[in-house]
Each structure stands twice: as structure tokens, then as C-alpha cells.
């Protein structure tokens, strides 16, 4: 399959490498491509339906929708009830996923937790349930492929960085690349929550370093400083996502000094939607390139 390129960028007088996993595919990109790698290699006739759940801005949802379209698989996606506005937007991950054939099922808030648990108990032959955000041990295979690409590139950097939601990507990357230092930072919840999520998959190795964010950010909330970093990053010629990348870059710029390879985790397709939300809050300072 595709080997992604490595770009050189300059930011605040420092040089960074960027592993361009964002360029793999418009919808099926970033770490979601890596995490779904094993499923992507599955012959179409082995499955007929993927089931998953989570938020309607999710990059995992979009990636699964694109995969299912390519494979001819059905895709059932469960969420809590959504607002009408969200459902009628003609931009963003939700819109594109529906267009690619995703079957969206809303579950009442009170029933949600038990309903999701029941999905794992009632699978039929030919169905596969993907945990929210793709946090599964099956993700390891694809991330090991990414690790091999990094090792084979022979770059003159010994540090890697990638932002965390569930921590699956950073954890498996650190396990596969013992000779590198792997930095990450929590973009959902705090450091303690991230450690807990990782430990559910595997013991955390010593070469994985979790950088503490400057302050407590709430996931997917617009922050002026995130938009500033996003803009600064745009000047390098590479677009990064607005949900995860800003916190990682902020931590990298303030807490590290050495040359780092940033693994682009994708998610750029969700920026349109986020920029609309920034504009609604009066942050009109962005001109898209
Ligand atoms: C899903 C996602 C992450 C988080 O990945 P985890 O493996 O859950 O830590 C980071 N960045 C982007 C753009 C994502 O879509």
C-alpha cells in the first residue's frame, strides 16, 4: 500500500520533519488509515457490515465510511441524538459520511451506554464492531507499518511526536520504535485519563513521553490560541487539523528543543466545520489557502 512522504518545515526558527499521512487519501487518511489497515487488507467478501459509534465530527467515522464504500460493506454508526443543524450542514465529516452511504442511528442519551455495550454481544457473521476512535489491538498492525516506514527513512531525528485522543497511535508507535523517543499530549481529557486509556491496551513503555498541556482544553471547543497556531502552521505549506494538532505543536514548541518528526495524524477534512464554528465566535482571522 501507500508509503507516505516526509516533508521538511520551518517553524519558529526550528526545523521539523512531517510524516505526510494526511496525503494518503482525502477521507481515509492520517492515523485512521493506519488503525484501519488490517480491515483495509481484509477481502471484501469476508465481511458485509461494519458497526461503530461515537461523535458526528469523528475522523474515525469518516474513514470507516470511506472504507465501507470502497469495500461495498454496510456501515451502521450509532451516536447520541444530534441537533437538526448538525444533520443539515452540507460540510464536514458527517455530511461526507452520509454521502458515502453511512447509516446513522441515534440512541437515546439514557440508553446509550448499555446499547453500545450490547453491540459487542450481538454481532452476526460477517459483521465487525470498531471501538470508538478505532482504539483496538488490531490497530497495532497498521501502526507497525508506519513505524517501519519511519525507520527505513533514515532521518537524522531521534524524536517523534503525534497527538493523542485514545493514545492508541502514540502507544503502538512507541512500542514499535524503541530507538526513538515518542512525544504525545492528551487532546481529550487529561494526562491521567490518557495513561488509563493506554494501559488498557498495553503497559506504557519508557520511550513514550506524555507532555502536559499548558492548560486544560476541552475537546473540540474553539480556542483563539489554537487558531493562531493553525494559522502559523499554514504558512509552512502544510495544513494541520484544528482538534488535535494545535495542542501537540504548542507542547512541542514550548517543551522540546531537538529535531522532531511530527506524524501528521490527518483530520484536515474536519477543519471546514471547525472554522465555521470559529467564525461564529467572532474569530474571523483566517484566510484559507
Ligand atoms: C483520531 C485522531 C487522533 C487521535 O488518535 P489516537 O490513536 O486515538 O490517540 C489524533 N489526530 C487526529 C487528526 C485524529 O483524527
From TrEMBL:
One of its GO terms (molecular function) is D-cysteine desulfhydrase activity. The keyword Nuclease does not apply. The active site is at residue 58. Its cofactor is pyridoxal 5'-phosphate. Gene3D superfamilies: 3.40.50.1100. The modification N6-(pyridoxal phosphate)lysine is found at residue 32. It comes from the Bacteria. Keywords: Pyridoxal phosphate. Belongs to the ACC deaminase/D-cysteine desulfhydrase family. This is 1-aminocyclopropane-1-carboxylate deaminase.
Amino acid at each position: 500500500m501507500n508509503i507516505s512522504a516526509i516533508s521538511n518545515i520551518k517553524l519558529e526558527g526550528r526545523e521539523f520533519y512531517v510524516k505526510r499521512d494526511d496525503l494518503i487519501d482525502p477521507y481515509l487518511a492520517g492515523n485512521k488509515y493506519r488503525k484501519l489497515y488490517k480491515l483495509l487488507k481484509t477481502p471484501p467478501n469476508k465481511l458485509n457490515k461494519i458497526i461503530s459509534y461515537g461523535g458526528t465530527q469523528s475522523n474515525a467515522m469518516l474513514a470507516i465510511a470511506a472504507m465501507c464504500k470502497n469495500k461495498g460493506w454496510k456501515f451502521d454508526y450509532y451516536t447520541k441524538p444530534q441537533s437538526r443543524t448538525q444533520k443539515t450542514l452540507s460540510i464536514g465529516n458527517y455530511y461526507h459520511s452520509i454521502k458515502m452511504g453511512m447509516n446513522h442511528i441515534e440512541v437515546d442519551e439514557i440508553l446509550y451506554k448499555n446499547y453500545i455495550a450490547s453491540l459487542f454481544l450481538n454481532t452476526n457473521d460477517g459483521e465487525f464492531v470498531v471501538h470508538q476512535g478505532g482504539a483496538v489491538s488490531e490497530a497495532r498492525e497498521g501502526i507497525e507499518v508506519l513505524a517501519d516506514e519511519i525507520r527505513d527513512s533514515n532521518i537524522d531525528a531521534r524524536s517523534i511526536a503525534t497527538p493523542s485522543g485514545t493514545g492508541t497511535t502514540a502507544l503502538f508507535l512507541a512500542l514499535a520504535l524503541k530507538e526513538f523517543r515518542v512525544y504525545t499530549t492528551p487532546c481529550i481529557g487529561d494526562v491521567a485519563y490518557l495513561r488509563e486509556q493506554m494501559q488498557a491496551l498495553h503497559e506504557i513503555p519508557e520511550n513514550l513521553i506524555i507532555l502536559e498541556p499548558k492548560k486544560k482544553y476541552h475537546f473540540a471547543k474553539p480556542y483563539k490560541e489554537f487558531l493562531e497556531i493553525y494559522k502559523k502552521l499554514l504558512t509552512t505549506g502544510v495544513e494541520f487539523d484544528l482538534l488535535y494538532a494545535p495542542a501537540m505543536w504548542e507542547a512541542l514548541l514550548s517543551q522540546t528543543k531537538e529535531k522532531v518528526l511530527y506524524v501528521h495524524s490527518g483530520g484536515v477534512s474536519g477543519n471546514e466545520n471547525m472554522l465555521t464554528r470559529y467564525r461564529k465566535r467572532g474569530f474571523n482571522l483566517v484566510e484559507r489557502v
